[in-house]
């Protein structure tokens, strides 16, 4: 027997999706614009895309470069952020640099990067790397800064060296905050991945979308938007599972459906 | 007014001990200056000299802001004094080490580790084998009264339980000196009393040297062999008082003991006098 509250909680996200699609359908029917297909037409185009080998290869290629860019960014940003959080000198060195890079849309750097590295994988991975790095560095920095001094003292009294304290106390203590940064970074990886493929059009999900737009296949365009959105939701849900598992020790119990997982 | 003769130089533990008192910690003319703003310096500790004998339970008692915690941090090696030096067994204290185990008011447990994980952390760091460290830790957890909570995370425990874990975690790596920084300050009165009793029971087993910072007069008198009274701005030692009460101490007997009551009343009066002389607290 499932409690009514549970049913409401489980059904709510589904209802929200149905509501959005209905609004879309009605808007499209009302506007009668050729470039604005109905929700049904767009949804019907999804199996065609996913059934096409070429498209699938493109989407997988997108995911692959996204994973590489995200992976490298996380591996570089977490140690950097932690060091900045615990060393004033490191923070004073990197903070101005990051402040300069922060407001620049990473896609705006693409033309320059393309001049250096061409239109291939390296360019796109670098742009994804830049997009993901900043939130991960920032959250690692904040997380490391907030680590209780007495916790580090306790570790020092047990004989942990400064490096051991960084890896074995600061890192786990800051993990909840770091993973919040990674979650933001994951969504940004998806966004920069699509954007980079729109600019350096060669392959990938962004390329399919823009090719369809050039050819006036609007149902495909909208179907791709749905697919990209669904990818985002799935990746986020998977990440949230992993995150929740890693930091169960810090989670407060909450009652609001704040995620889809 | 002098009620309790202070004979700190030839001080010995009230309960007869075979070996002569050995100075385990020596604090020699320590001063500490903090820069509170660009132009202003705050003298937190002024010319503190103090000797702590091995196996003694010594409390540092004083109003908040008198630098008593800072003094403890200097002994711990967490803070270096602006001038003067602290020594442990004749060697200058250069930094933290497992010979001096801190217990903080904030508990400072590792929240990602279970109770067992927290207690095992020190021994594992010291190179004790996992099975051995676990057996010792389980015994310690039982000793502090937390049997059955081995796999709980700190967030699932009450304040009193967290402090029990912190005590067990520190005892686990066998420090020669326990440095307790207002350990019961964040607890409610009832929990506080229970932890004081339990701490004394645990202490009776091996009589480790304890340096205990507190602002509670009755806590200091109840626990200690010696109470170091400090005054504030700048932090100075005002008086060192030997607490000549029998051990083991039982709370219900001690509270009725006129000698205990006299210590508490006298010390409180001394604080009132220093308040009347200086600024109101």
TrEMBL record, chain A:
First-listed, main subcellular location of the protein, grouped into a coarse class: membrane
Q: Where in the cell is it found?
A: Cell membrane
SUPFAM superfamilies xrefs: MetI-like
Span-the-membrane segments of this chain are 12-31, 66-85, 97-119, 125-141, 178-200, 220-239
Record domain ABC transmembrane type-1: where: 59-239
Q: How does the protein associate with the membrane?
A: Multi-pass membrane protein
Q: Which Pfam families match?
A: BPD_transp_1 (PF00528)
Q: Give the keywords, sorted.
A: Cell membrane, Membrane, Transmembrane, Transmembrane helix, Transport
Q: Which family does it belong to?
A: Belongs to the binding-protein-dependent transport system permease family.
| Name assigned to this protein | ABC transporter permease
Q: What organism does this protein naturally occur in?
A: Bradyrhizobium campsiandrae
UniProtKB/TrEMBL annotation, chain B:
State if Nucleotide-binding is listed as a keyword: yes
Q: Which Pfam families match?
A: ABC_tran
The family database entries (PROSITE patterns) matched by this protein are listed as:
ABC_TRANSPORTER_1 (PS00211), ABC_TRANSPORTER_2 (PS50893)
Record-annotated ABC transporter domain positions: 28-257
Keywords annotated in UniProt: ATP-binding, Nucleotide-binding, Transport
CDD domains recorded: ABC_NrtD_SsuB_transporters
Q: Which domain of life is it from?
A: Bacteria
* Primary role: Involved in beta-(1-->2)glucan export. Transmembrane domains (TMD) form a pore in the inner membrane and the ATP-binding domain (NBD) is responsible for energy generation.
Protein name (record): ABC transporter ATP-binding protein
Q: Which organism is it from?
A: Bradyrhizobium campsiandrae
């Amino acid at each position: 027997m499932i409690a009514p509250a549970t049913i409401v909680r489980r059904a709510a996200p589904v209802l929200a999706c149905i509501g959005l699609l209905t609004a879309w359908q009605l808007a499209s029917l009302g506007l009668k614009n050729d470039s604005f297909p109905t929700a049904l037409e767009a949804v019907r185009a999804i199996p065609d895309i996913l059934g096409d080998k070429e498209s699938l290869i493109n989407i997988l290629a997108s995911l692959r470069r996204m994973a590489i860019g995200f992976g490298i960014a996380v591996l570089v940003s977490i140690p950097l952020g932690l060091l900045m959080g615990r060393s004033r000198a490191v923070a004073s060195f990197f903070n101005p640099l990051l402040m300069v890079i922060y407001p620049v849309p990473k896609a705006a750097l693409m033309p320059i990067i393309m001049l250096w590295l061409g239109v291939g994988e390296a360019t796109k991975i670098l742009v994804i790397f830049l997009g993901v790095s900043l939130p991960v560095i920032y959250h690692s920095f904040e997380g490391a800064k907030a680590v209780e001094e007495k916790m580090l003292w306790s570790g020092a009294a047990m004989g942990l060296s400064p490096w051991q304290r960084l890896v074995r106390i600061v890192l786990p203590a800051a993990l909840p905050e770091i993973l919040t940064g990674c979650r933001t970074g994951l969504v940004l990886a998806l966004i920069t991945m699509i954007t980079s493929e729109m600019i350096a059009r060669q392959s990938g999900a962004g390329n399919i979308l823009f090719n369809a737009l050039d050819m006036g296949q609007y149902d495909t365009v909208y179907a791709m938007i749905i697919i990209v959105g669904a990818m985002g939701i799935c990746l986020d849900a998977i990440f949230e599972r992993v995150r929740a598992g890693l930091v169960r020790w810090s989670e407060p119990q909450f009652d609001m459906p704040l995620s889809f997982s | 007014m002098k009620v309790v003769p202070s004979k700190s130089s030839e001080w010995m533990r009230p309960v007869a001990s075979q070996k002569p008192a050995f100075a385990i910690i020596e604090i020699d003319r320590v001063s500490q200056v903090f820069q509170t703003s660009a132009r202003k310096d705050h003298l937190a500790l002024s010319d503190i000299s103090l000797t702590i004998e091995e196996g003694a339970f010594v409390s540092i008692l004083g109003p908040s802001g008198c630098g008593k915690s800072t003094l403890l941090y200097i002994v711990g090696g967490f803070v270096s004094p602006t001038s003067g030096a602290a020594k442990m067994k004749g060697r200058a204290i250069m930094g933290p080490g497992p010979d001096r185990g801190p217990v903080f008011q904030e508990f400072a447990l590792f929240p990602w580790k279970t109770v067992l994980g927290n207690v095992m952390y020190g021994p594992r760091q010291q190179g004790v084998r996992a099975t051995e460290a676990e057996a010792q830790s389980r015994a310690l957890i039982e000793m502090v009264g937390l049997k059955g909570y081995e796999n709980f995370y700190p967030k699932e425990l009450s304040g009193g339980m967290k402090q029990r874990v912190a005590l067990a975690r520190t005892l686990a790596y066998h420090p020669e000196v326990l440095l307790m920084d207002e350990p019961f300050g964040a607890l409610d009165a009832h929990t506080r009393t229970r932890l004081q009793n339990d701490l004394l029971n645990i202490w009776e087993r091996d009589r480790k040297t304890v340096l205990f910072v507190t602002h509670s007069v009755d806590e200091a008198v109840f626990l200690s062999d010696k109470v170091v009274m400090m005054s504030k701005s700048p932090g100075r030692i005002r008086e060192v008082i030997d607490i000549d009460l029998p051990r083991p101490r039982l709370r219900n007997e001690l509270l009725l003991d006129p000698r205990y009551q006299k210590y508490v009343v006298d010390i409180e009066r001394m604080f009132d006098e220093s308040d009347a002389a200086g600024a109101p607290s």
